[in-house]
Amino acid sequence: MDLTHSPADEEFRAEARAWLRAHVPRTPLPSLETEEGFAAHRSWEAELAADRWSVVSWPERFGGRDAGLPRWLVFEEEYWAAGAPGRVGQNGVSLLAPTLFEHGTEEQRARVLPPMATGEVVWAQAWSEPEAGSDLAALTSRAVRADGGWRLRGQKTWSSRAAFADRAFGLFRSDPAAAEPHQGLTYLMFDLRAPGVTVRPIGRLDGRPAFAELFLDDVFVPDEDVIGAPGDGWRIAMSAAGNERGLTLRSPGRFLASAARLRDLWRAQGSPEHARARVADALIAARAYQLFTYSAASRVLDGARLGPESSMNKVFWSELDLALHETALDLLGAEGELADGAWSEGYVFSLAGPIYAGTNEIQRDIVAERLLGLPKGRR
Amino acid sequence: MRFLLDAEQRSFAESLRAMLTAAGTPAVIRDWGRGEHAGGRALWARIAEAGVFGLAVPEEYGGLGPHPVELAVAFVELGRHAVPGPLAETVGAAVLLGEPPLAERFLPALAAGKDLATVAAPCGHAVDGDAASVRLAPAPEGLYLSTAAAGPVRRSLDPARRLARLAPGGELLTPRPPYAEALTWIRLATAAQALGVGLALLDRTVAHVRQRTQFGVCVGSFQAVKHRLADAKTALEFARPLLFGAAVSLRPAEVAAAELTACEAAYSTARTALHLHGAIGYTAEYDLSLWLTKARALRSAWGTPEECRDLVLAEGL
């Protein structure tokens, strides 16, 4: 049981802290779910990338620093503590990149990863469909074999970042005759500006176009943009789902920073008794999440793979994020309803947490069935 | 950074678990609750033999410690089996009496399991004041060794906890006992015990809902049942790293956070366990009751949730 970071990791921490202190914008960037804010966040990614801070865990040849998990956790702690901007490239970096590292070809990695690292190409995810949400394997969008590639037909929805992003990745049904719903699916990358793609932005709860519907009408995708073997898409997508739910999507650094901000807000408001317990509980939960993650990271370093315990992560961080923001709004009193408050957009974002990346009900089913060994039943 | 139990620590837990499972604690607990201590003392001796009470005692006084991580490992197992007796209090006593000349006088017998120690809580109750041979009463002028339990033993909701007041006065052992440090160790032990209680409640409830059939299917296949158990599992698994993080740092605020979280997780698991067992869980004769009631008692035994939160807010994590 050792919670101390190595001297080399502490040096890395100091270097990251100094860089962030010099570069983090003094005034917050406009919301990344607006055209202007998206562009500003894209520039911020380029600034990070210029000094190789945008994807520290990646190999150096793709723009990273070969940081192992402990060092990545250190970076995230520093990043969020510095009040640095949200990450517009998150979908690509935390979902597509791990998939490419595991299942992609070297050609794909060399072509896709460097512009992802600089923010030159921002990725959207294209999983859900109007009739396939929690039951993702029910998806019906087709990938039809064509000369030298595939043609995509169908509709995707709730596609995060798609309103302003450049490219997207998702699952398509390439073999409709397959015996099981999760068979005959293919994992593809495609251009959101390709002929046949229509992007219809959807206003999130606060009206900002944080996601979009995608209409795909015979969109050509070359073979080089298929990840893994055609028909093997479900297995490939699920191998990255653990990332989305767990370790790499929501790092402890985020919640430690939010909990510290919440404590500061509470003190600034005169430490009101009505919020005392909730502020303390947020601090404790953020610390619990950090230590839980250190423990998971230690197991990964020992060669373990993260399995269904990622589902506990997802329930925990999404509920913590909501509780943090709800407490902050309550502390703000009547000002809590203002749409442009310091906690408002975070609050709106946190409301989606229990829904995306597999609803918390799906996660609880996974915990019950795969960690506790309870039998499958009706959903 | 390697935040995992090592092979030796895991095998320590496994051997304790095997020993306690073989001992069959429910019968021992019920005897203890009636004031029949023989079985409990025999079990105590075996726990001491495994080295548990030496973990807070330095080697020079017959112990192995201080080893707070191993202590947490051990107390999770003691909680898992609802072992009766002043467990956390004996650990706390070893810290209170940790300086010479008291250390030479008291610690070897505590480490060896020959003496059971209790410490009066701020409310005045001392757990197992009748069974303990070392009865410590912190007072404004210092730490007293009380000569006897005074007055009738009061029953706790947890039948294994026999609460007694200590006779006032006695021998003033030291004017300045390390009370804050002792409280930290007691809270660490309590947190670990609570986590073990919660884990046992979860295991028993999972086993129950897998075999209990209603409407022609096992009740564990119902989503309403699964989700309560998934929440219990999640709460316990997030309390675990707080416990071991607190054992590593021994900072009072971290220990308070661990105690609060482990006790809350155990208590909410107890509520789930009671509910999912249905009426059978609401009976004293069914052994589940021994864990259900302990989860409630530990929650406020050595610091209420509010006291723990105060420490977290005052000192930070």
Automatic annotation (TrEMBL), chain A:
InterPro entries, per the entry: Acyl-CoA_Oxase/DH_mid-dom (IPR006091), Acyl-CoA_Oxase/DH_mid-dom_sf (IPR046373), AcylCo_DH-like_C (IPR036250), AcylCo_DH/oxidase_C (IPR009075), AcylCoA_DH/ox_N (IPR013786), AcylCoA_DH/ox_N_sf (IPR037069), AcylCoA_DH/oxidase_NM_dom_sf (IPR009100), Mycobact_Acyl-CoA_DH (IPR052161)
Nucleus among keywords: no
CC cofactor: FAD
Pfam family, one: Acyl-CoA_dh_1
Boundaries of every Acyl-CoA dehydrogenase/oxidase C-terminal domain copy: 231-372
SUPFAM superfamilies (UniProt xref): Acyl-CoA dehydrogenase C-terminal domain-like (SSF47203), Acyl-CoA dehydrogenase NM domain-like (SSF56645)
Domain Acyl-CoA oxidase/dehydrogenase middle: 124-219
Keyword Oxidoreductase attributed: yes
Keywords: FAD, Flavoprotein, Oxidoreductase
Family: Belongs to the acyl-CoA dehydrogenase family.
Protein name in UniProt: Acyl-CoA dehydrogenase family protein
Automatic annotation (TrEMBL), chain B:
Residue ranges occupied by any Acyl-CoA dehydrogenase/oxidase C-terminal domain in the UniProt entry: 181-313
Cofactor requirement: FAD
Record bears the keyword Plastid: no
Keywords per UniProt: FAD, Flavoprotein, Oxidoreductase
Pfam family, one: Acyl-CoA_dh_1
Domain Acyl-CoA dehydrogenase/oxidase N-terminal: from-to ranges: 7-114
Protein name listed in UniProt: Acyl-CoA/acyl-ACP dehydrogenase
